[in-house]
């Protein structure tokens, strides 16, 4: 018999910190490299920054597939370990690598065939189209790193090895930060590649991280065993992974649709407005990434304790997750309110970018604390197999409310009013999250409590 995993016995506050802190640190490093990437690109030109910003929906879609599948792997694997189904856990881990490879092949083909079309749908400025097409093709054709990196991270997270997950993400981000100026500006004998250099640095960091992750998983993750010998795809396991994963994928993909739509609205005012939106996403990642790290840490805790039928640990995990998430978002809100000009100047902001960006950051940040609450609730929904609830929240926030309201406000009040769509949308999501949380508690947690008392 294997001994009880720490997720079933460690005090909850200590467990959340031990599970989440390494991922928060690694995601902060990840956010830092996103900012550094754009900071160097901004030194080329504002059009170069816009080209990279317009690639965000496509890159976000890749990340959505990778992380959404990872959520399904995380929840399924942690639940199997909690139920002591160790053979099934090993099969899920092997399928994680298989699904990562399939995702890579799909995006490599999409990048080859449709990168230029994607840019021409957004703008007709030749410099932006040319630079952006090159950037996106490199990121998609060489995307094998991001898919395997995320898959391996989730295997480590699912068994509580979040320290090694932090190592994987941290190494990838640090390599990217080091390679950015070398590849963009042509240092140390490397050819000057401009925007293409930013893409090369990104994919190189991802591939290095994936390689490190594979080694660490093989040597340190002894609770599961990945074996490709006599491997055959299992429809039941894939269905179980994607029953949670697909809603998460769609939920994250909706962000790509929202960003694409917002870019279309904003570029109608100016390319600078689109660049401001891209800069906002880079900056907000420094606030949201730690909350997503907290989310990644709480999903396996809740899933494991649901499998182990420990409702009190589930409830305490959620309460603390909400407190931590809202607190992190409050810090972000304060930074955006007090120092918007200084944040924008990181990206070599022009006077026009400052004029547009300062009120934009102040208005959008009004939504931060409500967003923290919603992300914490999503961890509960995902862990207990109710990924569709997270999906509904995302659809309502980004498609039903945000885009239509942004479009209407752009017609009524112009560019300055567009940013108010973000806090309006987040309030609607907060209400929906509370309704769903009440339903999940009554359906999944109360029966466990009643069973324990009986």
β-strand amount:
under 5%
- Helix % is over 70%
Give the C-alpha Rg. 22 Å
Count of structural domains: 1
- Provide the low-confidence segments as ranges: none
Structural class: mainly alpha
CA-based shape: globular
Could you give the distance between the termini? Answer: 27 Å
Separate helix tally: 17
- The count of β-strands is 0
Question: Tags for this entry?
Answer:
single chain, 454 residues, mainly alpha, 17 helices, 84% helix, 0% strand, globular
Structure description:
The chain is mainly α. The protein has one domain (12-453). The chain contains 17 helices and no strands.
Short description:
It contains 17 helices and no strands. With 454 residues, it is mostly helical. Helix 1 (12-42) runs antiparallel to helix 10 and helix 3 runs parallel beside helix 6.
Sequence-ordered SSE layout with sheet pairings:
Elements: H1 12-42, H2 46-54, H3 56-82, H4 86-120, H5 126-141, H6 144-158, H7 162-185, H8 195-220, H9 235-267, H10 271-307, H11 311-338, H12 340-345, H13 351-364, H14 368-383, H15 387-412, H16 415-418, H17 421-453
Helix pairs in contact: 1-2, 1-7, 1-10, 2-5, 2-10, 3-4, 3-6, 3-9, 3-10, 4-5, 4-6, 5-8, 6-7, 6-8, 7-8, 9-10, 9-15, 10-11, 10-13, 10-14, 11-14, 11-17, 14-15, 14-17, 15-17
């Amino acid at each position: 018999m294997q001994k009880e995993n720490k997720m079933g016995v460690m005090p909850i506050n200590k467990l959340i910190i031990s599970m989440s802190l390494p991922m928060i640190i690694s995601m902060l490093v990840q956010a830092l490299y996103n900012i550094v990437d754009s900071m160097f690109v901004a030194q080329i030109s504002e059009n170069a920054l816009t080209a990279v910003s317009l690639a965000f929906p496509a890159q976000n879609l890749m990340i959505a597939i990778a992380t959404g599948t990872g959520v399904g792997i995380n929840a399924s694997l942690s639940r199997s370990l909690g139920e002591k189904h160790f053979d099934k856990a090993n099969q899920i881990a092997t399928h994680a690598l298989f699904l990562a490879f399939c995702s890579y092949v799909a995006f490599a083909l999409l990048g080859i065939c449709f990168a230029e079309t994607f840019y021409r749908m957004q703008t007709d400025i030749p410099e932006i189209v040319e630079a952006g097409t090159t950037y996106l093709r490199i990121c998609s054709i060489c995307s094998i790193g991001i898919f395997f990196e995320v898959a391996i991270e989730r295997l480590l997270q699912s068994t509580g090895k979040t320290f090694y997950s932090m190592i994987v993400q941290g190494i990838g981000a640090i390599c990217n930060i080091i390679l950015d100026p070398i590849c963009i500006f042509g240092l140390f004998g490397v050819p000057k590649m401009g925007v293409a250099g930013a893409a090369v640095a990104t994919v190189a960091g991802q591939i290095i991280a994936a390689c490190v992750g594979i080694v660490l998983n093989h040597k340190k993750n002894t609770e599961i065993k990945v074996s490709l010998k006599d491997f055959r795809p299992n429809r039941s396991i894939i269905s179980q992974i994607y029953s949670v994963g697909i809603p998460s994928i769609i939920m994250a993909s909706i962000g790509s649709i929202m960003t694409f739509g917002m870019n279309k609205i904003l570029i109608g005012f100016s390319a600078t407005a689109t660049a401001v939106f891209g800069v906002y996403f880079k900056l907000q990642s420094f606030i949201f990434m730690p909350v997503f790290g907290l989310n990644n840490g709480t999903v396996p805790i809740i899933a494991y304790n649901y499998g182990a039928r420990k409702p009190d640990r589930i409830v305490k995990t959620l309460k603390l997750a909400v407190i931590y998430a809202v607190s992190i978002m409050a810090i972000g809100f304060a930074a955006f309110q007090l120092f918007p000009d200084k944040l924008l100047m990181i990206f070599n902001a022009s006077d026009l970018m400052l004029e547009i960006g300062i009120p934009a950051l102040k208005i959008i940040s009004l939504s931060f604390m409500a967003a923290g609450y919603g992300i914490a609730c999503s961890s509960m929904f995902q862990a207990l197999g109710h990924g569709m609830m997270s999906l509904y929240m995302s659809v309502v926030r980004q498609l039903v409310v945000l885009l239509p309201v942004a479009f209407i406000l752009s017609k009524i009040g112009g560019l300055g009013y567009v940013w108010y769509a973000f806090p309006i949308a987040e309030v609607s999501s907060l209400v929906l999250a509370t309704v769903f949380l009440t339903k999940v508690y009554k359906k999944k947690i109360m029966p466990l409590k009643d069973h324990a008392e009986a």
